[in-house]
Amino acid sequence: MRMSVGLHARQSQVQKLAPRMIQSMEILQMHALALQERIEQEMNENPLLEQVTGDPLSPDEGDDEAPSKDARSENEKELVVDNDHDNKDDFERLSNMDSELPSTFDDSFRQSANRMSEEADRRHDMMANAQSRPESLNDFLLHQLAELDIHDDVEQIAERIISTLNASDGGYLRTPIADMLPPGHSKEDLALAEEALQIVQSLEPTGIAARDLSECLILQLDPKLPHFEQLQTLIRFHLNDLAENRLPQIAKKTGFSIEDIQELREDLHLLNPKPGAAFLETYVPNVTPDIILEQDDDGEYRVRLDDDRVPNLFISEYYRKRLQASDCSAEEREFIKQKINGAQWLIDSIEQRRSTLTKVAEAIVEHQKRFLDEGPEAIEPLKMQQIADKVGVHVTTVSRAVDDKWIQTPRGILPLRRFFVGGTQTEDGEDVAWDTIRLKLQELIDKEDKSKPYSDETLVDELRNAGMTVARRTVTKYRKKMGIPSSRKRRDWSLNST
């Protein structure tokens, strides 16, 4: 085999996105609050951007500041959305603006006093509204420990034990006691460590610092319970059998009746297998809808973009006049041109976002009208490509438009992605969404005979009888996702204890 080294010319086509086009896509992907923050940042960095203040419909306000649309040049005019096309001319104009003017310049302009004051007020409000840090599991235990009258050596080991506990792990003690002592420790040191562990385990929440699940549950048992000994027996020796619903085996080994075992299992369900998890810091975001869906008097759905928080922007008239002034230096003129370019691109990108998001939402609502009228069981299969074809944009544009966006509907506030679901076809060729199949699966299991629960194969047959052809592995996958145990675990042994 001969090998050679040389230079070869090859022609290839590579698609590259201009930085401004990337910015436009980023703005489309933002939800309203993120867009508001982005606009505030741009206004801080670009002195040519101004915000319409007061009532925009009032003839006495804003007339001296906001420029008229007719006075703008070709590159500064507002984006006109054409519902019959994909706005290719607008994006081409934006791309030309990006290539004609420089992308970097030394911005030496300082913020005005009013803008600096507004930013300071906004930061103050953010600090005032910030949530205080919740008490951690370790702090909660240390505060209890400090109130106890115990020996210093025991307290130090107890603090060491507490430091190893993690709320995300449920508050279990995963480090051996001996590893918390110095090398060459004595039996007396180990006894102190065991004493320290018992003290930590006596703190709230009950069951904390357990070394395994059995110890955690036993720590939570009250010795005054009428079935304390039986509960201990089940916890120490039969937890796996309980988890697998092997009640006859437990009855055979313990002599307990099936009915007694079921009652004891209900008592065990009241215990907390992860007592430390209550101290997990869970972040629950405030959902603010970007789109409002309302019904008119005729029952027709109307889509309205809820962007009242997004300010209306325009380019400062002062800098427009400065650009035409005779005493404007070449450096100043280049700076103003660059800032006009950035400001106009931002304004056009926001308008393009409004248009795209509105058209995408309208197409989704039109396709999922039955879901909005009748509920989740009537949802239709829908792919993003279908909406992209209907709106006349690329599928990635639809993906960015619906990302992290919420819509307020008569059925509550829902993420836009909720309306996109896969599906299959019935024997009659009708499309059925997977959500509909899951609801039917839940209905079948709720109505089954618990003495003889449906196997996955039987569920396939029952779904087929309902006109839904689904593979067994699909039934198994959705059953597990829905948190439904297997047929053996769903069996109620008290109904056929003989």
From TrEMBL:
Pfam families: Sigma54_AID (PF00309), Sigma54_CBD (PF04963), Sigma54_DBD (PF04552). Residues 128-319 form the RNA polymerase sigma factor 54 core-binding domain. InterPro entries: RNA_pol_sigma_54 (IPR000394), RNA_pol_sigma_54_core-bd (IPR007046), RNA_pol_sigma_54_DNA-bd (IPR007634), RpoN_core-bd_sf (IPR038709). Keywords: DNA-binding, DNA-directed RNA polymerase, Nucleotidyltransferase, Sigma factor, Transcription, Transcription regulation, Transferase. Residues 50-111 are annotated as: Disordered. Residues 66-95 have a biased composition (Basic and acidic residues). It comes from the Bacteria. Residues 96-111 have a biased composition (Polar residues). Residues 334-491 form the RNA polymerase sigma factor 54 DNA-binding domain. NCBIfam families: rpoN_sigma. Belongs to the sigma-54 factor family. This is RNA polymerase, sigma 54 subunit, RpoN/SigL. It comes from Neorhodopirellula lusitana.
